[in-house]
Amino acid sequence: MQLGCAWVAARRGGGRKLASWSLLSPQRQTDRQTDSWQEAAWGPQLLQQTSWLNEPPLGLAPHPSMVQACGGRSRAQPLTLSLGAAMTQPPPAKTPAKKHVRLQERRGSNVALMLDVRSLGAVEPICSVNTPREVTLHFLRTAGHPLTRWALQHQPPSPKQLEEEFLKIPSNFVSPEDLDIPGHASKDRYKTILPNPQSRVCLGRAQSQEDGDYINANYIRGYDGKEKVYIATQGPMPNTVSDFWEMVWQEEVSLIVMLTQLREGKEKCVHYWPTEEETYGPFQIRIQDMKECPEYTVRQLTIQYREECRSVKHILFSAWPDHQTPESAGPLLRLVAEVEESPETAARPGPIVVHCSAGIGRTGCFIATRIGCQQLKARREVDILGIVCQLRLDRGGMIQTAEQYQFLHHTLALYAGQLPEEPSP
Q1: Total count of domains within the chain
Q2: Following CA atoms 69, 71, 75, 80 in sequence, which dihedral angle do they give, to the nearest 10 degrees?
Q3: What residue stretches are annotated with the Tyrosine-protein phosphatase domain (predicted)?
Q4: pLDDT at 10 exceeding the cut of 70
Q5: Which of 66, 141, 298, 335 could join 62 in a cystine, given CB atoms 3.0 to 4.6 angstroms apart?
Q6: SS3 of 344, please?
C-alpha cells in the first residue's frame, strides 16, 4: 500500500521529482543503484505527457479516464489504487529518445484533436462566384459610352482617357484548348489569333481527314446588332486560298475589302486573286475590270463554280500600316463611302468579307468605322465603346491598339462634322 501511495504522490507532484525511496520495500531498495536511471528517465516523461489532462479542452466533456487522472480537480470519485494494481503495472522499461514526436504524442491523446461543432456557430451559405469568362462576357455585353455628335466634335475624351477606356475592354481571345478542331493550326496565320467558336464560319463541304470545315473566320454583327453583316478573316495562306474562295461562294459574298499589302517586312497575305484568270480548287476566278484610285484599287471579278457564275467586287486599301493608323482619316472615310455606294452591297444578302493580315486590327477599325457612321447618321450619337465590345464578342481582339481606338474616335468626329446640320426645333 505504501508503494501505491508513493507512485500516486509522484504523479501528483508536478513533475519535479519522484516520491522518496524510503517508502519502498527492502527488496526494491537493494535495486536502487541499478533501477534509478530508468525511473529518472521515465518519470518526467510520463508527467509531461499527462499534465495536459488537468485542463480539459474547451467545449468537450471530460472523458472518464481523464476525470480519474485529474484527482481532486473534478467532481468525480477520487482515484484509489490498490497495491496489487500498482504492482501489476510497473514503470515501463527505458525506450530510446524520439527525434520526432508525433502530433498525438505531443498532445497526449487524440481526444484533444476533436472539435465541438457547436462552437463553430452558424455556417454562412456559399455565394456564387463569377468566373473570369463570365466577367468578360458581362462587360462586353453591357459596357457603353454614348457620345452625341456635338460632344464628339467639341468635347471629346482626351487621349489618356481613351487609352484607359480601351485597356479595360477584355480582349476575348480564344485559347487553343477551347478550339477542339484537329489540324486547325496548319491553317492559322498566327497561332494566337483564332476564331471564336460560337461565331466561326464553317465550310459546308463533305467531312474528311483531308479537308474539314475549318477556316479562320468569324461572322460579325453590324449596325443595330444585325447578324452576319460581315465576315472578318485572316489574310489567305498558300494552303487556304481555295478555302477562302469556297467561303466566298458558300456565303454568297459580293464584296471583299482587303486592308493590307501582300508584304510589310514579311508576308502578310498571299496573292489569292489572278492577274487575268486562274483556278483555285473547283473555282475559276477571272478579272473583268480594274480601277485605280488614289487610296485604293477596285477590281471586278467573276467566280465560277460548275455552270454558275457570280460577280464579286474586290477593294484593296493598302495605305494602312500594320498595328498603326493611316496618316489621315479622310482616305478611310472615302473607303467607307465606296462600300456604302457600291451596288454590290445591296445586291445579295451575303456578308461583306473584310480582312487584313490577322483579321482583327485594321479589319476591326474598318467595320467599327462603318457602324459608327451609320449610328451617327441615324441617331446623331455614337457608342464607340459599345461597338468595339460587340465586335470582340464575335471575334476576339478586334481593334488591337489604343492608337487605333483613338483614331476611330478622330475619324468619326470628322464624319460627324460632314453631316448636315440638325434642323432647328
Answers
A1: 2
A2: 90
A3: 162-415
A4: no
A5: 66
A6: helix
- The DSSP element (H or E) to which 418 belongs, if any, is helix 402-418
Residues 294 and 332 in one domain: yes
CB 157, CB 382: distance < 8 Å: no
H helix runs in 126-219, sequence order: 132-142, 149-154, 159-167
pLDDT tens digits for range 227-283: 999 999 999 999 999 999 999 999 999 999 999 999 999 999 999 999 999 999 999
> Are residues 401 and 286 both part of a single domain?
yes
Q: How confident is the model at residue 323 (pLDDT cuts 50, 70, 90)?
A: confident
Question: What CATH number is associated with residue 331?
Answer: 3.90.190.10
State yes or no: 322 annotated in a binding site.
Answer: yes
Q: Per residue in 351-407, pLDDT tens?
A: 999 999 999 999 999 999 999 999 999 999 999 999 999 999 999 999 999 999 999
- Rounded Cα distance between 252 and 247, Å, is 8
Cell numbers for 70: 485529474
Residues 6+ positions from 80 with CB-CB distance below 8 Å:
none
| Same domain (yes/no): 21, 52 | yes
Is 357 labeled as ligand-binding?
yes
Would you name the residues annotated as active-site residues?
356
What is the residue range of 113's domain? 2-120
d(CA 231, CA 412): 22
Q: Rounded to two decimals, what is the model's pTM? A: 0.70
Residue 139: pLDDT over 70: yes
The pLDDT of residue 212: 85
Q: State which of 120, 153, 182 marks the end of a domain.
A: 120
Q: Maximum Cα–Cα distance for the chain, whole Å?
A: 128
Residues 109 and 142 in one domain: no
Domain closes at, from 91, 120, 149: 120
Are both 274 and 313 inside the same structural domain?
Answer: yes
Those residues whose C-beta lies under 8 Å from the C-beta of residue 32, and which sit 6 or more positions away, are 21, 24
> Taken in order 416, 419, 420, 425, is the CA torsion positive or negative?
negative
- The answer to whether the annotation marks 358 as part of a ligand binding site is yes
Which pLDDT belongs to residue 4? Answer: 45
Same domain, 31 and 176: no
400 is in an annotated binding site: yes
**pLDDT (0 to 100) of residue 423:** 61
**In angstroms, what is the C-alpha Rg of the chain?**
42
